[in-house]
Amino acid sequence: MIEMHIEEPAKRIPVYDEADICVLGGSCTGVFAAVRAARLGARVVLVEKQNAFGGVATSGLVNIWHSLYDTTFTKQIIAGLTWETIERLARVDAVRAEEKSHSAGYALNTEELKIELDRLVLESGVKPYLHTAFAAPYVQDGELKGVIVENKSGRGAILARQFVDATGDGDLCARLELAHRVSPQFQPSTACAKISGWGEGGGMPEDDPREGGLKGLNLNEARLKHREAYDLPEGFGWGRYVPGTKGIYMYAGTRVYHADSADGEQLTHAEIEGRRQVRAVMDLIRDHGPDNRIALVALPSYIGTRETRHVEARHRLKGSEVLLGTAFDDAIASGSYRVDIHHQDKPGLTFKYLDGTEVYVRPGYPHAVGRWRPDTGDSPTYYQIPYRSLLPQGPYPNLIMAGRMIDVDDEAFGGVRVMVNMNQTGEAAGVAAYLALHQDRPLDTVDPSELRRTLREGGSIML
């Protein structure tokens, strides 16, 4: 490809809004950041490129939130807006709890989740902008003053005093040219689908190898046996029935390898390839499991991206700190989900547990069970994420990040990346931005003990 450039003439653009805090990215992480800051009294603008809030949960169709308890299921370690949202969904029969499951805590009806997130945003007084894409930062005299966005009204600016990058890919940080990296083994993306007529239409036990109980077909075995005929890569499939429906199943069984969703061309390829694989899986079921009268109900509006950029922060959370349950004085989130690594360089995935066990799962083959450390007889039951891992290095003291772009290594990312953990980073970022605003100080000088206290007062559990 010939590299070329054109000159874009300078022009005056309108200011769409001015706020105390601007949150870029309307996943649950971004919504929770905005809501927590607004509830404390800040004027907050929330910018989202899709037509609804919720990110991977809604636009990506992933309808699982993991356990809010420690690994023994005896101590609740997560509450805050995650728990509040679950309670809201329960009122409209849009959530199903899965007791004492290491694979899931709650199955969600993510269409209902869209509506609840709308309500959370509006009730808290946040100013929302949907169908609005971030284009560029606005920096004046070395200070981050605003962001340039584009929507149906054209191009405009949103000015603010504090900024939360909750874009998932760290778009604001990257366009500010802050140091960041993409792991050579970044976890591959998955296009999910909602499919009707899947099996008996009931619940699904943890790690059910029948993929939700298809009639007369073990999908894992069939995919391995017929994968060349349907051009399906080896991978790992799972799913859950959608609460409140009969026989509509969310299936997450595609794999798009070596496609970086932070790159425009590669993201385009990933979207098309993910949909192709959904059709291939359905063709396989139709051909080899004809008793299942399946129909495609919904495809995601955005592929389920697991990992792209990680922005360098004041602290890089290490896999050893997660697996050994290291305690941090500035901890702002706790989690118990196992380290779950979807491999780029081989099929299947590896689970590492806090009790020292390790399992390599390759569908169609026996599990390879071992240990990543000797049995000590004493194991942590949860891990923590420090505030420092949300603070990007660089010259912008009014910028914080939340979500999967935080600074973690490959192993730590396998555990902390799930939504119930990232939701907490959003709440912490929103509260920290409020404190920095209220006290007129840089984000990296916010007192962690005050941050933790304010989070606790707002409903979060701080251990």
Automatic annotation (TrEMBL):
<keyword id="KW-0004">4Fe-4S</keyword>
<dbReference type="InterPro" id="IPR036188">
    <property type="entry name" value="FAD/NAD-bd_sf"/>
</dbReference>
<dbReference type="Pfam" id="PF12831">
    <property type="entry name" value="FAD_oxidored"/>
</dbReference>
<dbReference type="GO" id="GO:0016491">
    <property type="term" value="F:oxidoreductase activity"/>
</dbReference>
<protein>
    <submittedName>
        <fullName>FAD-dependent oxidoreductase</fullName>
    </submittedName>
</protein>
<dbReference type="GO" id="GO:0051539">
    <property type="term" value="F:4 iron, 4 sulfur cluster binding"/>
</dbReference>
<dbReference type="InterPro" id="IPR039650">
    <property type="entry name" value="HdrA-like"/>
</dbReference>
<keyword id="KW-0408">Iron</keyword>
<keyword id="KW-0560">Oxidoreductase</keyword>
<dbReference type="GO" id="GO:0046872">
    <property type="term" value="F:metal ion binding"/>
</dbReference>
<keyword id="KW-0411">Iron-sulfur</keyword>
<keyword id="KW-0479">Metal-binding</keyword>
